[in-house]
Design a protein that fits this description.
Blueprint (H helix, E strand, L loop, with lengths): L14 H11 L4 H17 L10 H13 L5 H18 L25 H9 L3 H13 L3 H5 L6 E2 L4 E4 L8 E4 L5 H20 L9 H6 L19 E2 L6 E2 L5 H14 L8 H14 L4 H8 L4 H4 L16 H4 L4
Antiparallel strand pairs: 1-2, 2-3, 4-5
Helix pairs in contact: 2-4, 3-4, 5-10, 6-10, 6-11
Length: 332
């Protein structure tokens, strides 16, 4: 339909608005949205505030080279910056830039994952207490990523079947993983407490939760229903930085990071332990116990078994240990 002759021409969206509209339409994770926007702003600052539409291919290459030389960023960081720029031009501006396909991507090193022995893992978890401690045990007991655990909803935990459903994991994929029987009681108590808080929220007209776009459109009242509420919700209401809604959010990942760091120090561990270490321990300890690698692949949500095979390089293999030649010498 043609616009009326006297209609004012439609103004193009500002850069920020156009970026947000597109990235949310494609259902990218909030963390990806934040990272990509940060790199787009870094690109503009590097070129003294010039608009991305004014930049030439040489300007983009200069920025990426600046990251590697002057800022000495890692290969993964440089590749993330390139991914943000590709998204801006291809998805937001719908601009075909064949030269971007020829940009040399930095090669990422493939370090072996940090894995703790069973005794050290037990010592670490022993110093993780309270609700953060329950989440840390869940990370080790299920192999979930920290954000996957924090974004669990009440309906994702099936205590009777002993199954946890991970929704919209890495790559936007759903999967199921095992629910540790040793955590069943603690999870049941947490679910009961969460239901109590939800009843309070309903009475205060504060029962609301962030939903995937499709669910929000199809079921307008789902945000007030218990199955959709965050399992590990904050004790207070917070303002959502994306929507401005004042409601409970899920616990912040930084809380779990601090818990792990403090527990590692208390346990006397010298390794640089972080929440993802528990996922590595889950996979490695399962393989050491004789679990099939395909099963571990499915529990972790890996698309390719070769990703899972990296844990075979850090497994303890009784009977296959190499004796150092120094140990064979009798030095005094």
């Amino acid at each position: 339909m043609l616009a009326p002759a006297n209609a004012a021409p439609q103004q193009p969206l500002k850069l920020r608005d156009a970026f947000v509209a597109r990235i949310r339409a494609k259902h990218y994770a909030p963390s990806t949205e934040k990272s990509y926007w940060g790199w787009i702003m870094a690109l503009c600052r590097h070129h003294r505030g010039r608009h991305p539409r004014e930049l030439q291919p040489s300007d983009i290459e200069d920025f990426l080279s600046h990251l590697a030389t002057a800022r000495n960023v890692s290969a993964s960081t440089q590749n993330q910056a390139l991914a943000a720029i590709l998204f801006l031009y291809r998805d937001v501006y719908d601009t075909k830039l064949p030269w971007l396909d020829n940009v040399t991507r930095a090669k990422r090193p493939k370090p072996l994952p940090l894995v703790l022995g069973r005794a050290d893992t037990q010592a670490l978890l022993a110093h993780c207490t309270g609700l953060p401690g329950l989440i840390c045990r869940l990370l080790y007991g299920t192999g979930m990523r920290v954000n996957e655990a924090l974004r669990l909803r009440m309906g994702d935990v099936d205590l009777r079947r002993g199954i946890i459903t991970v929704r919209l994991g890495k790559g936007g994929k759903d999967r199921t993983t095992c629910l540790p029987r040793s955590l069943a009681r603690a999870l049941a108590e947490q679910m009961a407490e969460r239901a109590r808080l939800h009843a309070i929220d309903l009475a205060r007209d504060r029962a609301d939760v962030e939903l995937p776009d499709a669910i929000e459109r199809k079921y307008p009242h789902a945000a007030r229903e218990l199955p959709w509420q965050w399992l590990f919700a904050t004790s207070t209401y917070q303002t959502c930085h994306r929507t401005g809604a004042y409601r409970r959010h899920h616990i912040d990942a930084r809380t779990i990071q601090r818990t792990i760091k403090q527990a590692a120090r208390a346990a006397g561990l010298t390794q640089a332990v972080h929440p993802h270490t528990l996922r590595h321990c889950f996979a490695t300890h399962l393989l050491e116990s004789g679990s099939d690698i395909r099963t571990v692949q499915e529990l972790l949500g890996h698309s390719d078994v070769t990703t899972t095979q990296i844990y075979t390089h850090v497994m303890e293999r009784p009977g296959l240990a190499t004796i150092s030649p120094l140990d064979a010498m009798q030095l005094h």
